[in-house]
Amino acid sequence: MSETRILIVDDHPLFRRGVRQLVEMDPDMTIAGEASNGAEAVEAAGTLELDLILMDLNMARMDGLEALRQIRSNGVDTRLVMLTVSDADDDVVAALRAGADGYLLKDMEPEDLLARIKEAAEGKLVISPQLAAILAGIVSGGRAAPADALSSLTSRELDILRTLARGMSNKMIARRLDITEGTVKVHVKNLLKKLGLRSRVEAAVWAVNHGVS
Amino acid sequence: MSETRILIVDDHPLFRRGVRQLVEMDPDMTIAGEASNGAEAVEAAGTLELDLILMDLNMARMDGLEALRQIRSNGVDTRLVMLTVSDADDDVVAALRAGADGYLLKDMEPEDLLARIKEAAEGKLVISPQLAAILAGIVSGGRAAPADALSSLTSRELDILRTLARGMSNKMIARRLDITEGTVKVHVKNLLKKLGLRSRVEAAVWAVNHGVS
DNA sequence: GCGTGGCTACCCCCTAAGAGGTAGCCAGAT
DNA sequence: ATCTGGCTACCTCTTAGGGGGTAGCCACGC
After folding, report:
1. What are the entry keywords (chains A, B) (predicted)?
2. I want to staple A165 with a disulfide (CB 3.0 to 4.6 A). Which of A191, A204, B91, B107 is the partner?
3. How do residues A101-146 score in pLDDT, each as one tens digit?
4. Contacts of B164 in chain A (CB under 8 A)
5. Which domains does chain B have, with CATH numbers?
6. Is the pTM of this model over 0.85?
7. Closest residue of A to B213, CA-based?
8. A-interface mutation test, from B71, B195, B201, most A Cβ less than 10 A away
9. How far is residue A6 CA from its own chain's centroid?
């Protein structure tokens, strides 16, 4: 398949440049155009061949929300993700109601942001983690970490988590539980997925904070 | 029962000779082997039939602490006593945390040293009197580093620790603090040493338990 | 002036960690 | 009888982590 063509809309040239650099680190994505305000975005959305629009909210001539509305009312259904500093509930809700396919905060980690942009291009609804709670009550498909995450773990996974949370390496855990290191890795991998975490460090902190011991 | 077989690990041949002479004054003990560095010690610990290892800390090819860790991680639980000139808190704590069964200073009186070695071979935890205070602090404070470990950290190291304890990778920390990943690694390395910990996972758990946030 | 500690950055080297995948075995459920 | 979930074990591949070292710059204290 050909590369994903993206329009970046933001009134700060430097920010656009940063996003361009980030996005084009991925060989499958390219910045097909830039716009510095909502009006230009509406224009570009109607003329360029686009797969995804990254839109700022706060812009001078026309803000992102209004631009989104005009784009949609022009019958353009290009995927569009808000990329902004505002974490206000109202902004999030309004953007999604107006037809945004995602809402990301500018202070995300770059590689995380890049991953979300890719997901958005693939058709997923992407939301910054901090906003997941807000979204839970509004959108049905929200992906917030389940409160009963602990009970979803098998007893073996709990064994591993408890040991991991004492700072043990996979090898030490393996020796202690008398299984191979490879098997420990499998359990760690699975429990990370179940808990929605990304590393054993997060798992250890999670375990301590949830009284797993 | 048969005589106690001891491995002496020290990079000074003369010191080894002195210990050998001292130990073999006791008819129930014998020096079953000598090693001049940590690597040799790890090797010997895995092959010789031993009851006790006397290990120096400061050695060229592999220091005693690392040798101890490797021995333990090889699943060898032979009793092991550090025999060194260092009376630094950090060294004592690290050795005991790494699984040492004792920590003796080289400037002890010979007959006193011999008595302690016998005790160690019998299963006791032996500590040079001068270090008793340190040990008391460790035992009462549960696990973890010296009481003033936190205050020994520089402000930058605290920055790193706080961020690390949120599960961030070195790369993420670097981006957040606007330094290179290499520099983050340096700080992590140093704070691990100061806290007597062995991995970022232990550091994260330590941070949570000590309210570093 | 000089040394020291703190922060930064880089080097090399090796191991640990994590994401994929396949697969065998077993117990409990259907 | 077949299926499913859980536990085990192995594979490959890539990145992350951590130990060792050197070094420049700066601020502080002596």
Report:
1. DNA-binding, Phosphoprotein
2. A204
3. 888 888 676 777 887 888 788 776 677 755 544 443 333 222 233 4
4. 201
5. 4-140 (3.40.50.2300), 149-209 (1.10.10.10)
6. no
7. A205
8. B201
9. 17
